[in-house]
Amino acid sequence: MRNFDLTPLYRASVGFDRMADVMDRALSADIASYPPYNIEKTGENAYRIAIAVAGFGADDLNVEVKDGAVIVSGRKAAEDEGRSFLHRGIATRAFERRFTLADHVRVEGASHVDGMLNIDLVREIPESLKPRRIEIAKSLKSVEKLDA
Fold first, then answer.
1. pLDDT tens digits for range 126-147
2. Where do the SHSP domain residues begin and end (predicted)?
3. Bridge partners for 63 per DSSP
4. pTM of the model
């Protein structure tokens, strides 16, 4: 696997440190496969993270927004006393998943239904960043009114 050195990006730009940090984390992150998840686009500015959390109840899960990331963790209390498994295929080991959020994306809510943890996200672009139409003056009188 290749290693990318992002140092030139840090020293040759101003204000891109957050983007460089995200790229650095993405390139150096260990790829964990537990628990499996989907990220889907549910609308023009809406997204959903769906995580398969079979065996976990809502009380065993924690969803937290911190430092521009959604952190999902699960910890199952030991309940195996008196139970004997011939095969144990449903993993209930502790986990932590981190999803970095883009600017202006916020968590709208979370739900736990049928072994799936759904986290709904929405991108809210501030009015100051939305495109706006500027009216063009058509006569000299209109320009004078704007200057007044």
1. 888 778 888 888 876 655 555 5
2. 28-139
3. 72
4. 0.68
